[in-house]
Prior knowledge:
By secondary structure, the protein is an alpha/beta fold.
Amino acid sequence: MIYFDNAATTRPYDEVLRTYHEVATKIFGNPSSLHNLGSNATRILEASRKQVANLLGVAPSEIFFTSGGTESDNWALKGTAFEKEQYGKHIIVSAIEHPAVKESAKWLSEHGFAVDYAPVDSRGFVDVEALAKLIKSETILVSVMAVNNEIGSIQPISEISELLADKPTITFHVDAVQAIGKIPVSHYLTSRVDLASFSAHKFHGVRGVGILYKKEGKRISSLLTGGGQESDLRSTTENVAGIAASARALRMTLDKEALALPKIAKMKQVIQEALEEFDGVQLFTEEEGFAPNIITFGIRGVRGEVVVHAFEEHAIYISTTSACSSKAGKPAGTLIAMGVPQKEAQTAVRISLDDDNDMSQVEQFLTIFKHVYAKTQKVRR
Length: 381
C-alpha cells in the first residue's frame, strides 16, 4: 500500500498511540474531579498544554483544546462575531478557505453579519491589495488560511499582518491546520495573529483533538456552555488521553521538521518534473511559494474521481482536492476561485506526501501513473 493522502489525515505515530493507551488506561479520571484521579488528569492536561504552548512559542494560557480543526475554526469565527458585534458586523475571509471557515462565514451572513471574500490570483494566493480595499470601519474579523488544503499555496500571512498592524480592532484569524510540520511556525503565528486553528490528526496525532490559539487579552464568546472547562470558554470534559497523545505528536513532528521537509520536497520535485513530461497533464501546483508536500494535477478530460479509483486498484491512495468535499463530487473550490474553468477543475486530484513516504513509493506511483495515463488515451483525444 502507498498512502499519498496525508493532507486528509496522517497515520498516528506508534509512540502517540502508546501515549494515548497509557493515559486512557492509567489516568482516566475526570480533570474536574477533586480526588487524586482527577488531580492526576489535571496535571497531565496542563503539562500537555504547556508543551503545546512551548512548541508554538506562545503562553499556556493562550492554548485551548477543542474536538478538531472544524470546531476551532467555527469557534474563532462565530465566537469573535458574537463577542464584537456591537462594534461592527463585517467579516472578511479569503475565497479559498476550508469549508469549516467558509460555511461558518456563510452561517454568520444568514444571522445578520456582512461577509466579503478576498480574491486570489491565478496561482492561488490571496491578493493583499484587494483585501485591503474590502476593509471598512465596521470590519471586526479577517480570516485567511496559512496553507491551502487543495493546492498547497502558502498564503501571505506576513503581508496581511503588516496590513492589519495599525488596525487593532480587527481580529486576525489564521487556519493553520495544513501548516504544522510543513512551514515554519513563525510564518503563521506572527505577532499580529490573534487566533489560529490546528487539528491533531494532520500531524500524526489522534482524531478528535484540535487546538485554538487565542492571544492573551483577545475576547471570544463561548460556543459551549456548561461545566466551565477551558477557562470557562469551552465547557465539556477534556479528552485528556487524546490531548496528551497530540502534544507528543506535535513535538515529534516539529523535531523531525528539519530533516523531513527536504526529503518531502525532493519527492514532490521528482513527481512534478515527471508529470510535466506528459501531454494533457495540467499541474496546478508549483515548487516556489507552495507547501513541499502537496501536488495537484489533472489529466485532461478525465474526472478526478476516476483517477483516484484507478490508483486505488493498485493500492495507491490519493484524493480529489479536499477530503471534506470529495464525496459531494464538488470541483475544487480553490481552482474555481483562481479562475480555472470548471471542466478543468473537475479533473483535479491531490497527492499529499509525508515523511512516512519514500522515493521507492514515488517510483512505484510514477510507474502506475503511466498505466493510468495510457488507459485515458481515448478520453484525452
